[in-house]
Amino acid sequence: MGNQSCALENLVTMNKTLLHQTYNGKKVFLTGHTGFKGAWLLKVLKLIGAEVKGYSLEPENKFDLYHLIGGDHLCESVIDDVRNRKRLKEEVLSFQPDFIFHLAAQPLVRLSYEIPSETFEVNAIGTANLLDAAKDLEKPCSIVLITTDKVYHNNEWHHPYREGDRLGGYDPYSASKACAELVIDSYRNSFFNLNKYNQHKKGIAVGRAGNVIGGGDWAKDRLLPDIARALGNEKTIIIRNPSSVRPWQHVLEPIMGYLLLGSKLAENPLVYSQAYNFGPYTNDALPVEQMVKIAIQSWGGGEYESLATGSELHEAGLLKLDISKAYAELKWTPKMNAYQAVQLTMDWYKQYFEDAAAIIEKTDAQIHSFISVTEAII
Ligand SMILES: NC(=O)c1ccc[n+]([C@@H]2O[C@H](COP(=O)([O-])OP(=O)(O)OC[C@H]3O[C@@H](n4cnc5c(N)ncnc54)[C@H](O)[C@@H]3O)[C@@H](O)[C@H]2O)c1
Questions:
Q1: Whether the CB of 32 sits within 6 Å of ligand 1
Q2: Considering only CA atoms, which of 119, 285, 315 is closest in space to residue 213?
Q3: Does the pTM of the predicted model rise above 0.70?
Q4: 129-186 tens-digit pLDDT
Q5: For 70, 120, 209, 344, which has the most beta carbons within 10 A of its beta carbon?
Q6: Helix, coil or strand: residue 378
């Protein structure tokens, strides 16, 4: 046991050192910092010593993860719209970042059917606005732009999608993110061409991840938040599409992928200015009903009911990501399976409903324990 805990401490120290080497004391401009993934990334960045400036809209609720972790104390927070091109540029240029992580987006498929043109504006034009700002930045900068697995033209194939596969989207959200990728590609060719790296000194990479779960997500129409809300309020969980199989993974997995990609990009922009998939192992998908059962078991009790939706909206079939490129080039792999990811997520929500005042400690503990087992950054 003594040797084991010593080995664990060494591993933690080694991982911390590697993340620290890249980000400690570095300036990171983070869009979407008030959102679910952005708040987790903000917390990890602070733990590894980065100075962060966030740019997003106001968090929607006072119980958002950003507020719960004391986000305003972790970064300089700018509240504005990515469609405000002038302000966005001013904020990027006045900060002079070493890294940019772009997560701000309208990320909901169902909402994208209600506000399609706004979704395109925020996701595609917002990305162009950010890259416009980066164009005027006269210093080296590593830029990681976050899209989604939904950028792939879904052929309902059984085999996993690879980075070179055709892009396209059926619903407005997926199409807007595929548009964002075209925007990125165009800027990379036109303004950040690798042949002229010595002039612009920008590395531009894309992280494509699938649905993620984790504490602090309160979005509507997402399974785990719906489950947590029902269990926390002692109500029956209502599920749609119980047999629908989805490849969810814990939010910390792609976040480590984005950080690792940023690190590699800073080290060698000519090699890593590309798109990378970050997803679970392809055999690690679970039906919705089984996810609900695991969540109830982790929580220690609860009831659920399956409902037919009668929804007219198109729902894409299962889309799997091939993650062999991230493994081969970044040495990134998932560290938890879906079962463990659900357990960790429910552990967070249970803490929130039992004693929200201790949620910062719970979030930190989950990050530390995740870093301690990850080899992604070794
Ligand atoms: N959560 C997932 O399962 C998932 C899966 C794949 C990809 N993604 C991508 O990850 C990123 C973050 O998603 P999330 O789940 O954290 O979403 P979220 O809704 O929790 O957060 C979205 C963030 O974007 C900001 N934002 C939205 N519209 C904005 C605007 N017009 N101007 C400025 N900021 C704006 C919000 O203020 C918030 O900070 C998105 O790009 C999303 O497409 C998420």
A1: yes
A2: 285
A3: yes
A4: 999 999 999 999 999 999 999 999 988 878 899 999 999 999 999 999 999 999 999 9
A5: 209
A6: coil
